[in-house]
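Run log, item B.
One chain of 337 residues. Sequence copied directly from the ordering sheet:
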Amino acid sequence: MRRRTLLKSSALFALGAAGATVLGSCAQSSPNAGSASEGAKTLRVGLVPWLGWGETKIAEVQGYFEEAGIEVEQTVFQSVTEVNTAFLSNQVDLVWLVASDLVVLSDSTSGLKFIYASDYSGEVDAIVGRNVADPKELVGKTIAREEVPYEIVFVNKFLESAGLSKDEVNVVPLTAADGSVALVAENLDAVATYEPFVSNALKASDDNTILFTAAGTNIIVNGLAGQEDLLESRREDVVAYLTALEKANQFRADNPEEANKIIADWIEVSPEEVADLMSKITMLDIADNKAIAFSETNDLNAANSISDAGPILVEAGVAKQEIPGEELVDASFVNAI
């Protein structure tokens, strides 16, 4: 069964946003239906239970939102479909997502901005091959991936790194769980998947090996986004929210065992599993945001990730137009801290 830890897959647009729960927050649990107004008191945030967003739970548990002087309602959805739908329908003010999702979401609304990077997916996301010593051996063979934006980009980048074109392989849509099962059953030659399915596939057979990961790349940048109007009208609250997250990041650095326990309780795995998975992703604090994710001179910045994803998503038919990454990022919030 898929762990709550890694609920990253989605079709971006569903008709509803069922299955949401509200994290214990310092606000009342009423939804503040409709667009957030300038005088709105509660900052409404939507997310799925992804390991890299553990600072949101730490900040809540440690009371950092109250210390920052803001009321926050963090609603946890069970799929990215639901959280993105809630965002597009103004049920939440800010959304945690993969930066490249903004290319697709921009087909439905304008003025979107990526304002903070929490983590870069490293070895958590991988291409696992069966009896493949060299990626070029995949010519004429089958690779499975989920039919979601970041996985489309991820597989495309793998093929590019291997000197292969998408026409040289047979790409089929399968969930990460189903694809991993099919690989172990020897019904696939390779699969794009993520933990814990990566480790499960490797343990199942010595014939299964990692061919590619997101480590050292900006292919999958996870973080926080909002609509321009809301960001401007609630600027002080958004900066306060990020300030609380920075305190949570410092708490995690100073108290790793306690922090891992908080995150483990939230995503329903063991603290030991949290520690292991943490070692496979690149976590970012505010200083890293300034030096990497929002630095115009750093090739691994979020704007480049979005720009690179655009042509791939348009060609795949999941986005209508390419948008330069610099138009979808706003560094002013991290620079204010």
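Observations after the first pass:
- The longest strand covers residues 112-120.
- Confidence is low (pLDDT under 50) at residues 1-19, 24-40.
Flagged for discussion on Thursday.
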